[in-house]
Design goal:
The protein is of the alpha/beta class. The chain folds into 2 domains: about 210 residues, Cyclic phosphodiesterase (Cyclic Phosphodiesterase, Chain: A, Alpha-Beta Complex); about 190 residues, Purple Acid Phosphatase, chain A, domain 2 (4-Layer Sandwich). The chain is built from 12 helices and 21 strands. The radius of gyration is 25 Å and the shape is elongated.
Length: about 425
Amino acid sequence: MGWFDKLFKKKVYKAKNERRTSPHYLIEFRFQGKAKGWGKKLSADISKKFGVKRVARSGRPPHITLYGRFETANEKEMASRFLKVCKQFDLIKFRLNGFSHIENRVVQINVEPSQELKEFRKQLAAEMNSICNAQEWDNTQKEFLFHATLAFKDIESKFEKIWTYLQNSEQPNKSMYLIRTTLLKNGKILLEYDFIQRRALNRMEALNGKIMRTTIDYLKEIKANKGKRKETVFEETKNNVFFISDLHLDHKNIIKYTKRPFENVHEMNNVLVNNWNSTVKPNDTVYFLGDMVFGRGCRPATHWLKQLNGKIIFIEGNHEEVSGINSFPPAENVFLNYKGKKFLLVHDPALKPKDWNDWIIHGHHHNNHLEEFPFVNGDKKTINVSVELTDYKPVPIQTIINPELESIKYWKTIKDKIIKK
């Protein structure tokens, strides 16, 4: 048998073996920027100097394991829970402080977690454990060891020399933010959540250098602002103010997804534009809360904005690729003050600031979770202005300003129209 035949046979065997094995997953934080370069170099130096295996040998950056390795029979539900927990947390800090070791088997960068990081990992484990084949250390009743491994497996006979080398090296002492959490499948990125931009990223987006540079720019802005996100507060006193979200123009599948009463996407586009312009005058103000367009081949938001009346204040949603207009990304907080009442304006209500207890005007949920996100939820102080709940037209501020009275009255008049049959 020739070398090519042997190689081919080996690859076929490997592929068959991988198909028999259930996928394995891991959730981790990956170092970025200078910390990434420093950690990779230090791991490589230890490997070269002492002849041991290199942690980052497969191209993975230094990382902090947060959950796993694990298996699950329901990847979709697992990914959904992963994002659910991530969205409940905002800016999570921790500190790199010197080196530590586990007996003489592992040397690592010592990680001092903040209370937020501890709580994040605990909630992550609690959500995952019921549907995943978890490791012993992911038991929520046990104290979790946060660390970033530098060398392990084959270091026991050389541990003393490696440890002495590290003690004589520059000791890490740096406060850091949890920039992203990475969900890996068989060692490759399946999904990431960006805490700085407050958005989920697929594999291609996670590896996109431009998106990471945007994240770093926002992080610099947060650091310059003493650890706080940029905030914009709008003051309104007039009544010619409207709200709407989730038009999803050009998105054919949204008709089926939310049972919109349209025959096709062309009819939907025309009705939504006409409804907007028959409700809003050129001098009125409209707060648009995200997801103007969506779908393969959709025209850009700027195409539609030119056709819509009013002064439009654009707050970005999940599916936005906005350029050429003034808009507010999820990385920033936007508030509205109107006649003594305060509102947070956001696409996804899960992204509310930790200390926010006033009303939230939002979209994102369409008419898919009406028990939790109806037009008005007085207990949670949320107002859902997805188009399915506003009779497919912008809703005036007079309807929103008194959620306990006007909004409930309004909700009763349109409820039968928007509840999915």
